[in-house]
């Protein structure tokens, strides 16, 4: 029997070690799974913003998979379209997950969670890839209470990430551990304008859906317009309640209320700049990107204290808060901004300072550390299994 040469084994061991070190040091391949900008909303905007920043980072190789596939016109048949879209999206998802090191899944609540995020979690678990479930929906308490199976599926994630401490607390109540990585403000395109003497020119940009209670804003504006007949309100974006809200505005006798529909992200800075007070009245919310954009634009904010908003706004320090559903309280806050000298400018100035906490220089390293940690853990487990 021939004796093995120890130097040969040493050289092979060294080559194996160097190969593994090289694999650990290479750029992490991250797959973002999220809605595209065809669905304008906080998730799609934040996902694209995150992608744009990560593309500039040499340690990350980023790719994007939209959950809203577009079909040829001849396949756009009601019900059949939904089924075909789902099948196509799932096929693309499985293929893309196989090429990634870390899967980053944006998710809303309710039924939409089961259409793409839940299958993505299952697919990642099936092929042994680490998955981040990035939850943004301020309705999470109701979703988790009504759909216990959602909590069980979420446990498939390697990490649950939320953009506010409010949602960390919500998930903890349901026995789920979440970590907070705030939204990136992306406010570089915003022009700051001080409103020393704000005009009664108001802006509302939340979706026209029940959870955002836009009817409360209209009722508050009716009170404002009694004192300021020249007051104007722009209602941006769209939603299922648009028709009834237009009818409500008419029944309240409101004037100068303009429903302008969906607004592209690149057009938002001009819309903020043209307004003097921002109004929003959600019954459920988390960490609205629109608030950070208002902060950067110098637009003083009047908002309900729903959900995570009170973690972002301190009443009478960097904004004005009222109890959800209290349109009289909302109107009183707005009137104070119009009539109390220096209040609007002071709040906006303080809000602008808080924007620094949501810059990419602060938030980016948190994401990159998380991606690297999960990728290294995956590679370590794979190396141990193959040893």
Polypeptide structure, described:
The chain has 387 residues and is an alpha/beta fold. It has two domains: 27-184 and 359-386, Rossmann fold, CATH 3.40.50; 201-357, Glycogen Phosphorylase B (Rossmann fold), CATH 3.40.50.2000. It contains 16 helices and twelve strands. The chain has a six-stranded parallel beta sheet, with helices on both faces. It has a six-stranded parallel beta sheet with strand order 9-8-7-10-11-12, with helices on both faces. Helix 13 (309-312) links the parallel strand 11 and strand 12. Helix 6 (140-146) crosses helix 7 (148-154) and helix 12 crosses helix 15. The longest helix is centred in the last third of the chain and has 27 residues, at 360-386. The radius of gyration is 24 Å and the shape is globular. The two termini are 26 Å apart. The model is unreliable at 15-23 (pLDDT under 50).
Secondary structure topology:
Layout: H1 6-25, E1 28-34, H2 42-54, E2 60-66, H3 80-98, E3 102-107, H4 111-115, H5 117-127, E4 131-135, H6 140-146, H7 148-154, E5 159-162, H8 165-173, E6 178-180, E7 201-204, H9 214-227, E8 232-236, H10 242-251, E9 257-261, H11 268-273, E10 277-280, H12 289-297, E11 301-304, H13 309-312, E12 320-322, H14 327-339, H15 343-354, H16 360-386
Parallel strand pairs: 1-2, 1-3, 3-4, 4-5, 5-6, 7-8, 7-10, 8-9, 10-11, 11-12
Helix pairs in contact: 3-5, 6-7, 9-14, 12-15
């Amino acid at each position: 029997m021939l004796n093995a040469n120890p130097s040969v084994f040493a050289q092979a061991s060294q080559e194996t070690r160097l190969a593994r070190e090289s694999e650990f040091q290479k750029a992490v391949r991250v797959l973002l799974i999220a809605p595209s900008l065809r669905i304008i909303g906080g998730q799609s905007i934040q996902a694209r913003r995150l992608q744009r920043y990560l593309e500039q980072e040499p340690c990350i190789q980023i790719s994007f998979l939209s959950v809203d596939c577009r079909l040829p016109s001849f396949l756009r048949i009601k019900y059949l379209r939904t089924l075909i879209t789902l099948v196509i999206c799932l096929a693309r998802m499985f293929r893309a997950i196989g090429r990634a090191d870390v899967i980053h899944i944006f998710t809303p609540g309710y039924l939409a969670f089961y259409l793409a995020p839940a299958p993505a979690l299952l697919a990642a678990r099936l092929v042994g890839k680490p998955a981040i479930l990035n939850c943004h929906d301020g309705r999470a308490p109701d979703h988790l209470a009504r759909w216990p199976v959602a909590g069980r599926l979420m446990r498939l994630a390697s990490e649950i990430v939320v953009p506010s401490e409010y949602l960390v607390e919500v998930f903890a109540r349901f026995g789920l551990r979440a970590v907070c990585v705030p939204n990136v403000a992306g406010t570089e395109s915003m022009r700051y304008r001080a409103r020393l003497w704000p005009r009664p020119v108001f802006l509302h940009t939340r979706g026209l859906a029940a959870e955002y209670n836009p009817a409360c804003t209209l009722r508050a504006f009716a009170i404002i317009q009694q004192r300021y007949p020249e007051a104007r309100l722009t209602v941006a974006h769209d939603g299922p309640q648009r028709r009834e809200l237009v009818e409500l505005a008419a029944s309240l006798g409101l004037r100068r209320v303009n429903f302008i529909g969906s607004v592209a992200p690149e057009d938002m800075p001009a819309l903020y700049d043209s307004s003097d007070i921002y109004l929003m009245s959600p019954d459920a919310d988390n960490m609205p990107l629109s608030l950070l954009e208002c902060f950067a634009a110098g637009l003083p904010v009047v908002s309900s204290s729903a959900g995570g908003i009170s973690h972002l706004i301190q009443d009478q320090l960097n904004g004005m808060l009222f109890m959800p559903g209290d349109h009289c309280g909302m109107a009183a806050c707005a009137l104070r901004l119009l009539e109390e000298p220096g209040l609007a400018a002071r709040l906006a100035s303080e809000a602008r300072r808080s924007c620094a906490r949501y810059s990419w220089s602060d938030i980016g390293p948190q994401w990159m550390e998380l991606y690297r940690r999960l990728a290294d853990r995956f590679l370590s487990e794979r190396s141990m299994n193959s040893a």
